[in-house]
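Example record for the data management plan.
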Amino acid sequence: MRFCWPCHRSRVEGAGGGRAWAELEEAALTWLYSLADQERGVGWNPRASPDGQWKLGRTRALLDLAGAPDRQLKIALVAGTKGKGSTCAMLASILGAAGVRCGLYTKPHLQSYRERIRADGRAITPSDFAQAVDRMRRLVRELPPEAGEPTTFEVTTAMALDVFARQACDVAVVEVGLGGRLDATNATDPLVSVITSISYDHTAILGRTLGAIAGEKAGILRTGRTAFVAEQRTTVRRALDRACREVGAVCEVVPPLASELALAGAHQRQNAALAVAAASAFTSVDEAAIQHGLARLRWPGRFEVVQTQQPTVVLDGAHNGASAEALAATLSAYAAGRPIGLVIGINRDKDARAVLRPLLELAHCVWATQAATNPRALSAIELARVCRRLGASAQPEPDLNQALQAATRNTPRHGVVCVTGSLMLVGQARTSLCLPVPEQLW
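Corresponding structural encoding:
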């Protein structure tokens, strides 16, 4: 297998028209990340005011300082535990196929922060990114002192909507970061709310019961407006029904599509159904636009098959129990009895056992690894211990590149190597495999 660590930077520079813009992009990113808590992530800043009024207030203030770009857009706000990003990408692609200029704001990114902000499926360029960050940097200085510093995610949310308005988008498809009720994206006023499948994740923040988690997600509902909701477990459905009644939102439960999709996995049929329903709330969408929008979408890191390698490599960002179960079902069908080597790295704040259980049953060998420069990563040694407690032998290898090499050496050429556990890990694997930054999704 050929590995290619340097390719990421060179391709990003090429996308921006030269080294100068790449350096400005890097400087902009350094400032953005200075607003994040390095241990907890981009949604926290130790210098942000903990006062409740600023949970959404900082983002709203930034948006208003920018001229309220969100009020120039029709917004679809998408929450849920599993499938948010896929649903957002499909929705934006369908709207684009129907002739609607659409902005797409998702998280996290795989190889370049610019992937989070797209217009018509194309990532913001390095030059536009640097200029957008510079505008936000000036606006941050105008925030009331009592608000404290904004978080990286709050600034990026306001910046994305500002970019979409400046680029004359009609619709913005916005993925919630965490939860819903207190997420920065909820400072907007969505025309349509979408809630994908809900299961256990971020329980220390959102609550330890499915009802509590559903209640947090339901914070994106709006009075008199439609919420398109995936089929859910009974406990979740009851909580969402109750929230819709209390808010006065119109709840429409959307069953999965019956037909297969270009994106692998039966679970994607539910995400696609939500995307189709939401698209129809914005514009007239015919069957041709739906089919074209779904067929043309490239969604890297979600059961992404790299067939240029032997053995074949599958990249999937499954990072909680429900997504790991969906991956296991898809992987089992795809491998069809072929040996599977598993390269896995998981964050400390995730339920490692829930992620590992469905995947360890399929693997003939396992390498426990960790994403580089990620302070939240569970160490490879500790992850290997968890595997052993679950009855599976795992080789700890902190260096992802080395883990990939070991997996491809020890998995038969007709087999499959699956890299999973977090999208950050998958993004680093893409770079290691010399796959380019996904500048264009369709």
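Summary line stored alongside the record: The first strand starts at residue 74 and ends at 79.
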